[in-house]
Design a protein that fits this description.
mainly alpha, Amino acid/polyamine transporter I, disordered N terminus, about 450 residues, SNS_sf
């Protein structure tokens, strides 16, 4: 049971789609995860592997998901069911992944709102940014309130629809994001000593991967980051692709979205790592890089409070555009398959995700004694999506496209709206049939191995 395409809404222009899709991809994965994983994985070596896997995995998988969405004009589950109902479980994995990710992603979005409020009121972190962050996240009420505010803002946009909500907000927020990241990157690279950070990011240091284990780890981290950064295996590109007009150019759209996402990730590295090096901090500070290391950097920087405020506004824009797309994936399923109104689907699903997010937030404080596989609730949710759901969804998608629907079938859809033949059809087919599934399987197995 599903809606007809005419009742679902469509992006009004290719620009609207590109900005919305780029917004879905450009998120905390670029501004939070990319710099600290690059810092932990050898800098320049990691960047080389990352760019290779963007081309080898990111482009063909995103193109395939976009084609599946446009072909069927349905949500992730409905799309697979329409093409071959035996494979609808792949769509289920994607929608479930989006649901679980937003449940804890919105908690981090709440942290960003808290830091914006802190910088807007003077940026006083008491001299110890680590203690400030740890004290904040372990509180029972304040992080939960910020999490609920963030989720409510995202729900408001999705309730407004594809054109008036998602497309309109993306057209405002993405240009603002680009301006902010460039301003902060320019400030960072002009700091005394910043050249060491740029050297770390762009010049491969083979001493950082002196063993095969280190080299393999950098490769796997790069592959995993490509999936997280491009929002692959989450049903987002299928859902947004379903709002595309039939004459849209999938090859061109995919290239622009992937290019913009990679550019922002690199600019984020330029905004963060030079500043970290300039003030003598460790680039391998881990997940706390944004919330503990950078506030310490801004505290030592001229006009640091202003740049701290601008930076966290930048992170908020990135987090919000991704969160909106995750919520749309889940809402679209209930709109298509159960004929729920957009308002009903958005409110009910965002309320359920917000509830799970409350437990994720409390797991760093009052519920820290609840342990799942050695992890608190927040970390366990992240492990479930990043290490299991996302790679499984993407791997089965490649198998489905390469061996069930067939390369000829998807190529025909890709060529619809494209000017001229799909010239890399043979390479595209080999990647989807053989290379991508094997590489994703490596990510899956490595992610499940004890560290």
């Amino acid at each position: 049971m599903s809606h007809s395409p005419k009742n679902r809404g469509q992006f009004t222009s290719s620009l609207g789609f590109i900005l919305a899709s780029a917004g879905s991809a450009i998120g905390l994965g670029n501004l939070w995860k990319f710099p600290y994983i690059a810092g932990k994985s050898g800098g320049g070596i990691f960047l080389v592997f990352y760019l290779v896997f963007v081309i080898l995995l990111g482009l063909p998988i995103m193109m395939s998901e976009m084609a599946i969405g446009r072909k069927t004009q349905l949500n992730a589950i409905g799309a697979y069911r329409k093409l071959d109902k035996r494979w609808s479980f792949v769509g289920v994995l994607g929608v479930l992944c989006a649901f679980v990710i937003l449940s804890y992603y919105s908690v981090v979005g709440g942290w960003v709102l808290k830091y914006i409020a802190a910088y807007a009121t003077g940026g006083n972190f008491g001299g110890d940014t680590s203690a400030y962050f740890n004290n904040f996240v372990s509180q029972p009420w304040e992080p939960v309130i910020w999490h609920l505010v963030f989720m409510a803002l995202c729900a408001l946009v999705v309730v407004m629809g594809v054109v008036k909500g998602i497309e309109k907000v993306s057209k405002l927020m993405l240009p603002a994001l680009f301006v902010l990241v460039i301003v902060i990157a320019v400030r960072a690279v002009t700091l005394p000593g910043a050249s060491e950070g740029l050297k770390f990011l762009f010049v491969p240091n083979f001493a950082a991967v002196s063993s095969l284990k280190d080299l393999g780890n950098a490769m796997v981290q790069a592959m995993g980051q490509v999936f997280f950064s491009l929002s692959l295996g989450m049903g987002i590109t299928i859902t947004y692709g379903s709002y595309l007009k039939k004459d849209s150019n999938i090859v061109k759209n995919t290239g622009i979205v992937v290019g913009l996402d990679s550019l922002i990730a690199i600019l984020a590295g330029c905004a963060i790592l030079p500043a970290v090096f300039a003030f003598g901090f460790e680039p391998s500070a881990g997940a706390g890089l944004v919330f503990t290391t950078l506030p310490a950097v801004f505290a030592d920087m001229p006009l640091g409070t202003l740049f701290g405020l601008l930076f966290f506004i930048l992170v908020l824009i990135a987090a919000a555009t991704s969160a909106i797309s995750l919520l749309e994936v889940v809402a679209a399923y209930f709109i298509d398959n159960f004929h729920w109104s957009r308002k009903k689907a958005t409110i009910i699903m965002s309320a359920l995700m917000a509830l799970i997010g409350v437990f994720a937030s409390l797991s760093m404080g009052p519920l820290s004694n609840i342990v799942i596989g050695g992890m608190n609730i927040f970390d366990a949710l992240g492990f479930f999506t990043d290490k299991i759901l996302m790679p499984l969804s993407a791997m089965f998608m490649c198998i489905f496209v390469g061996h069930v629907w067939g390369v000829d079938g998807i190529t025909e859809e890709i060529e619809t709206g494209a000017k001229g033949a799909f010239k890399v059809k043979k390479a595209f087919g080999i990647i989807l049939k053989y290379i991508a599934p094997v590489l994703i399987l490596v990510i899956l197995i490595t992610g499940l191995l004890p560290s």
